[in-house]
Amino acid sequence: MKTLVNVNAFNDIYYINCFYNALFTGVIFHNEDIWNILSSGVAEYKLDLDRKRVLRVVYDKEYDKKLLEEIGLYLHTNEEEVFGFIKKAIDNNNPVIMNIDWFYIPHQKAVYQKEHRLHSILVNGYCEQEQKITIIDQKYTDTLIYDKFTLSFEDLNKAHLSYLEIMKEYKVESLFEVKKLNNTIRKVTGEECRNKYIRNMRNNNYYINRVHVLDQVLDNFDEVYKKITFDRESLLFFIDFLNDIVNHKRTDQYIGELYMKMSNEILHLNKEIESIWNKVRELSVKSMLKKDTLIDRYKYDIYDYITEIYNKEKELIELLKRSYS
What topology is assigned to 2-33+71-180 in CATH? Predict the structure, then answer.
């Protein structure tokens, strides 16, 4: 078995989607910092009553290729045969990000042979003799904890081919080797990332977007509530939104503690907001598991929670403005 040593699952936060958690594991393996990527994206809330997915969290981000080059890395892609690509990358001491379909991944028991779900993993080793590879992947489909697993070449190949088939009309790339740049460049500094993060908060209306959208939700609450509880799919979309919000609040906390050295007052308030969103999520998940309209009983509870979040977000934004304006 040829395995890259010191490839450890990144479990600090879940940033945007599974591709980034695989990417962060590869970046850290190469002894680089993920701060340049984190500082380049600001989360915004979107409300659209004309869509099935009424509420969304979206990231206004810079181009990832540029961000990686600024820390001395790049993603190499090719149309080579998949195992040849993996073998060559691992032999060159580079991990591989691979897009797959969880339908063919045995350790994902909740969806294995039951549900097609597109996903990204990090490959960090292979054994030609045993026809196996080692990967970093989520332990379960419903948790964001990552761990190491072993897969057969056959299962990996099926999962990869299924991904390509599902995504064929989009012509997306599916294999990425996380490599060091050969040429020497001036890397961005931590202070430059800090200034960029503050600039992005200002330029992307970070200070007003969240309270503005929450204000719209409260003003149109009956209509919003009717949309998110229309059917099971609508409720699942709403739970996805809540998952995204909780994850991005944790990312805010991570950035605030580790990189921005924010005040305890800001960090505590951000944590309070996250805990209230978690209460909304708990009620929504309870409704989904009951498979009925239980959420109707919680309408006014959810309204009160969002009102509380709205007021605390206004307070948080004033603190941030005083700190970084």
Answer: Cathepsin B; Chain A (3.90.70)
